[in-house]
């Protein structure tokens, strides 16, 4: 495993590295993203959680709508969870929305936004990366960051072995981030790291010719850029069967609120039942869909029961005009809309 101590075999010193990143960002980096305007800690928190697992172009309209509806952390803290989840729908990874809501409530209760790494990481939903990003972008203060872009950049720059998620590699990456992060111009430095990873040191077809760090990049010197970071060994993704009910009554559709843990937590969906549920013995299949989660594949069948469904407190009836206003998982919403469209056509 390669060492991460800069004194061992430095491609360049920490000061030179910071200067290269900062100068490049000032001239070539991104400066017009909405969360870069009139920066506040709250805007940084919202943007960073939205940008996890999601492309910038997808996030921008969601971010703008979010700030229109919840312009302050207090407004978000006071909102009902249903409204928060509805505004988030379409971005996926709904735990981010719940974490953002919990963070807002904790900060509002605290009375002020934390301004140091330890205090920030005490807030629900704020981890090591997000804390560093808030310090860097909102306060222009020392805040080391490591995300997917920085990981790829550092792995190539220092020819680091290992793949994302390996504890030894993650430890090395954070050590490097702590050593390389300067004590000033942190906003521009952090943005430079992210911009380099997103626009130059990309996963495929990196633009090494225009990289300001090319002269010290070990992977480039070895002509092994495409070998870093190492690919994680692939495992066969398991599949799971899901069984959902299609129940209509007087123009309304029966929906069920999911538990606050597990997939689609706290969202409304078609009621789900176990494969051995008695209702399925005489039910008629009316459709199916397949959805890819990060760790497994869901093969779903939708059934129209011939017997009356016993309702629970989690159940509710919704008219079709209400569906646009409630938080539904994307594959469930798509299937419902297609089914209602076909029903109307018939």
Automatic annotation (TrEMBL):
SMART domains, alphabetized: ENDO3c, FES
Entry-linked InterPro entries: A/G_AdeGlyc_MutY, DNA_glycosylase, Endonuclease-III-like_CS2, Endonuclease3_FeS-loop_motif, HhH-GPD_domain, HhH_base_excis_C, HhH_motif, MIG/MutY
Cofactor detail note: Binds 1 [4Fe-4S] cluster.
Keyword match DNA damage: yes
Molecular-function annotations in GO: 4 iron, 4 sulfur cluster binding; 8-oxo-7,8-dihydroguanine DNA N-glycosylase activity; adenine/guanine mispair binding; metal ion binding; oxidized purine DNA binding; purine-specific mismatch base pair DNA N-glycosylase activity
Pfam families on file: HHH, HhH-GPD, NUDIX_4
Keyword Hydrolase listed: yes
Residue ranges occupied by any HhH-GPD domain in the UniProt entry: 50-199
Enzyme Commission number(s) from the entry: 3.2.2.31
GO biological process: base-excision repair; mismatch repair
Record-linked SUPFAM superfamilies: DNA-glycosylase, Nudix
Coiled coil: none
Keywords attached to this entry: 4Fe-4S, DNA damage, DNA repair, Glycosidase, Hydrolase, Iron, Iron-sulfur, Metal-binding
Cofactor(s) of this protein: [4Fe-4S] cluster
PROSITE patterns attached to this UniProt entry: ENDONUCLEASE_III_2
Reactions this protein catalyses: Hydrolyzes free adenine bases from 7,8-dihydro-8-oxoguanine:adenine mismatched double-stranded DNA, leaving an apurinic site
Entry-linked NCBIfam families: mutY (TIGR01084)
Function statement: Adenine glycosylase active on G-A mispairs. MutY also corrects error-prone DNA synthesis past GO lesions which are due to the oxidatively damaged form of guanine: 7,8-dihydro-8-oxoguanine (8-oxo-dGTP).
Family under the similarity heading: Belongs to the Nth/MutY family.
PANTHER family: ADENINE DNA GLYCOSYLASE
Protein name: Adenine DNA glycosylase
Native source species: Alkalimonas amylolytica
